[in-house]
Amino acid sequence: MEAIAFEHLRVDTSEDVVRVRQEVRKRATEIGFGLVDQTKIVTAASELARNMLDYGGGGNVAFHVVQNGARRGLRLAFIDEGPGIADIEHALQDGVTTGGGLGLGLGGARRLSNEFEIVSAPGRGTKIVITRWK
Amino acid sequence: MDRIPILKLGHALLITIQVEMHDRVALALEDDLTARIVSTKAKGVMIDISALEIVDSFIGRMLDNIAAVSRMLDADTVVVGMRPAVAITLVELGLSLTGVKTALNVERGMALIQQRLHMAEAPHGGDRV
pTM (2 decimals)? Predict the structure, then answer.
């Protein structure tokens, strides 16, 4: 499988979350995602970008186009240097939040993606990689 | 700063969300809307989201908040115009907007609010202030 990285966006404000959404929409359209797939990946990206902002003190989003045979997909990596997550399984449960949110971000983003990977430890930041295939 | 206009339509207020929502816009909307509910004595609030390409949990929470606050001020909230792809995504996200009524479009949303008005009126023989 081949992955081409093509850009990074910094997320430090709520306006940056909007920019991430617009960029994901643009890339998903270019790859040829249908409307529902576009909406799912943009929504997942919005949740994760906002999580980085609310809990990770901001972070970076890296965009990749991935190719597996004839299949193309969009892979997004959300990387922050925040406090990290001690109990990842717990954080993935719906309704669990340490902030004022609904606690749907992580679990919701996982359901909206075809692949979901999370690496985190207390004091080590959080890296979440999601992929949606066309 | 972007502010979202609030239009009065009979006994209802109509809000059409066309800008990208972020924190400050959402907070300003809650402030403006609650003030307008009080000043107009509106019985219903319609939020038209047909221009929104996505609804994430942030916007979902905002819609829930608006509905809860409006309810305390005796106004019903109806979210109208949700795109099909948004509905599919919201359900998968796990956000079912339980505190909010939905209608397909503004016309049906208005009918829902009218219906509630008539129901409220009936026992008192139209003695509404």
Answer: 0.88
